[in-house]
Amino acid sequence: MRFTIKFLLLVQITLAALVVLGPAKPALACSGTPATIDEILERTQYVVKATIIEVDDLNQNYVLEAQSYIAGGSGPRYILLTLNPPIILEGVMQGFHGGGDCNGLLGGLPIGETAYLFVYRNSDGSYETASGPLFEQVFYPYQGQWRPEPQYEIYMTEEAAYSRQGDLLSESEFLDLIATKTHDSPMPPRMDTPYPLKSPLLINTSNATFMLPLDGQSLFKITQNSLQFAHGTTHAKYGCIEIGCTAISPNELHSAALTNLNEVIIYGTGDTIVGQSFLFSSTSDTIAVWNGNTLRIYLLRLPGDAPHEYRVTLLNETILRTSVRLTSQVITNSAVWSKNGRFLAYSDTEGLWLWDIFSSNILPRLLVHATDQDEIPLAGYFSPLDRYIAVSVGSNHFTLDTLSGEKFPYGVVSPDDRYLIPFDPLNEQNSIQICYLTPYSCLSPRLQDSYIKQIIWRNEDAVIITACSNVSKLEGCRIYQLPTYLSYDGYTQWFFQQEGIIFAYDSITETLAVLSSKGTVSIDGSIHDLRPVLSGQEVTSMVWMQPLFYYID
Fold it and tell me: Which of 121, 221, 380, 396 is paired with 6 by a 20 to 30 Å CA distance?
């Protein structure tokens, strides 16, 4: 993730103004000088005149519609511009001095604003403004009376940039300057380019991982090492069980590594903790560390400290019942944090435990007893509201109610923890049920002559599935959707969505990607052909990464 400060040349067309603007900075000890026009152009792919048509919840990241490309040739009609990516904004919102940068939050660009921008494309298909050595806010409002033609302040030399004495240019003078510097002529945008995605799409085959960029350009292969640090790898485990491994926390503000010295290093503080494995919590404010027969929980930040304080402090600990067959690596690989970060489900030779880590006077509670050392109950995942846990004991799988201890079929729980769809992807299934959890009762919407391959809850009221006509092959597959409020009638038909063998749904942006048997992916009406890059490789799964727009829950 790039941590440079961006440089933005903005022209407010509807109001005569003069602005040279980098992302707003708080009153921190940052210093430096802005870039000259030549320095900016060296890092620029396009100079584009564009209008803001969509913004994120903090007004920091945008979708732009290009009006004209002033330099760099013709570019896409729509681009996603990120001034402050979510990792920076998350740091700002949590008080981490801009997440390691000098960034802060100030009013961004409103919808309808038109601007001239110097931009370059990132590998994930997003765009950033061409960066200069700018480490503090530089803001030059036009102080004179309103004029029908906007004004621009341009730093032509290093001396001018250092003294903040730029040259005032009219719009026509600005366009002439860019033409002289680049020898390019204005060009219209490419109108056949798709509207940008908010999230990159990961496409996994049996031996490789590819990314579909936000702007729909060709797939490219990424390594597991680069994927580990890629923004928003929501499918990744946020912990390590092997020497030399490094992992990041879900909010990407913390990272830690296992060394060959039997210790965990917490980057950012330099703290070291004795242990053989670790797992960040889902809320990123704690970390679990396994050391022999002891499991300890550490706070990554003390409550009540000044916002910039970042420490590692012991919060709680418990003793494990371990054996040679059940090592810390096995335990860590099966431990699961609740969504709210309060509970840790972990295993030892006695069974599966549920631990309220913030209650020092309450011992972990044994949920499921182990029958022997070869069949230790292991946690798979918590339900969305943390009441239920998916549990595996050998070849036996079930869903456990942590309050009552009642066992239900293994399956997929709805976002409101009200419904369960029994589903075990390892076993063939040619029928589907939607079940109330309390009290437990099921209805069976009609879906004949099909084998279920994939199930996901779209929201509290709808389910999406992949059903195929052949149990062993992805043949005759279709994507269906069923509203749960229609499931009271056991004969309710599913709503046919489209033909496809695998899908990925992003509940944050409400985006559905469907892979067809022909090797194309359909997303919001746009078709992306994967065949030139995949070259016959079979796709095993698709996963959305976290959005590059920042959303407030």
Answer: 221
